[in-house]
Amino acid sequence: MGKLIITAAISGAEVTKEHNPAIPYTVEEIGREAEAAYKAGASIIHLHVREDDGTPTQDKARFKACMDEILRRCPDVIIQPSTGGAVGMTDLERLQPTELGPEMATLDCGTLNFGGDEIFVNTENTIKNFGKIMIERGIKPEIEVFDKGMIDYAIKFAKQGFIKEPMHFDFVLGVQMSASARDLAFMVDSIPQGSTWTVAGIGRHEFPMAAIGIAMGGHVRVGFEDNVYLAKGVLAKSNGELVEKVVRIAKELGREIATPDEAREILGLKKK
Ligand code: KMH
Ligand code: ZN
């Protein structure tokens, strides 16, 4: 089996210091958490940024400050800004970090329920527009899929020229769709041959999904955005601890960890 790419979703937009005091808000905190994840074995940092008080923002200048700080500490890491941002943001707000020309960015391929009355809106036109802009700006999308229909959208929009192939998918299981081995196998079986994939299990599903994903030859995302616990009732002290746990599982299952440059090769990224 090939090497394992670990993505660390270090901050998210919804979790707060009330969930876990280690959630990073400031530029310094973001940099420190990215470094902890990178040193533990993460080759990709999936990035949301905040104001100092924790308010989620897609402000380009704030992204630039955070990305500069991350690259100062982890010069070769792959930074993958979110274009999802937080529920309720406009498309124009959400697209701001793509102006910085990152190697990757997320492309959410459908609308979904996001808890309570919240709906995370991604219309067909939004997806197509984001896809087109990413092609123009030379950014490899990570296709965020929260249920199987979003894979079908990605395939349809790739055929129409809005997404380049081979595609890289992130299966986010445990938000709208359930998270079981059967669910993951169904998703993997539904993507085009030659695609790459990562699994992000939400909450208590994080490590079971990681273990199954590693055994299946896929890649893994962990981090505070998805889960704040190291084990039941034990808050993680940093994203580094979550990545370390995945590295331990991978070692037991015989998967070596990819460096950022090895991850670039696997994903077909051009280093910028
Ligand atoms: N915060 C969610 C509304 C992404 O990063 O692209 C969107 C999200 C997905 O986290
Ligand atoms: Zn995200």
Q: Which regions contain 5 or more consecutive residues with pLDDT less than 50? A: none
Task: Output mean pLDDT.
Answer: 98
What is the approximate shape?
Answer: globular
Give the CATH topology: TIM Barrel
Q: Mind telling me the CATH class? A: Alpha Beta
Strand tally is: 14
Distance between the terminal alpha carbons, to the nearest Å? Answer: 28 Å
Tell me the number of helical segments per DSSP (H or I, 4 or more residues long): 9
Largest sheet: 8 strands, parallel
The computed structural class is alpha/beta
Percent strand equals 15-25%
Descriptive keywords:
272 residues, binds (5S)-5-amino-3-OXO-hexanoic acid, alpha/beta, 9 helices, eight-stranded parallel β-sheet, single chain, globular, TIM Barrel, binds zinc ion
Question: What's this entry about, in short?
Answer:
It contains nine helices and 14 strands. With 272 residues, it is an alpha/beta fold.
Structural description of this entry:
By secondary structure, this protein is an alpha/beta fold. The chain has one domain (6-267): TIM Barrel. The protein has helices at 27-40, 60-73, 91-95, 124-136, 148-159, 181-190, 206-216, 239-252, 260-267, and strands at residues 6-9, 44-47, 49-50, 56-57, 78-81, 104-108, 112-113, 119-120, 140-145, 168-173, 196-201, 219-222, 229-231, 234-235. The strands form four sheets. Strands 5-2-1-12-11-10-9-6 form an eight-stranded parallel sheet, with helices on both faces. β1, α1 and β2 form a beta-alpha-beta unit. The mean pLDDT is 98. Bound molecules: (5S)-5-amino-3-OXO-hexanoic acid (KMH) and zinc ion (ZN). (5S)-5-amino-3-OXO-hexanoic acid binds at residues 13-14, 82-84, 86-87, 106, 108, 114, 120, 144. Residues 13-14, 82-84, 86-87, 106, 108, 114, 120, 144 line the site of (5S)-5-amino-3-OXO-hexanoic acid.
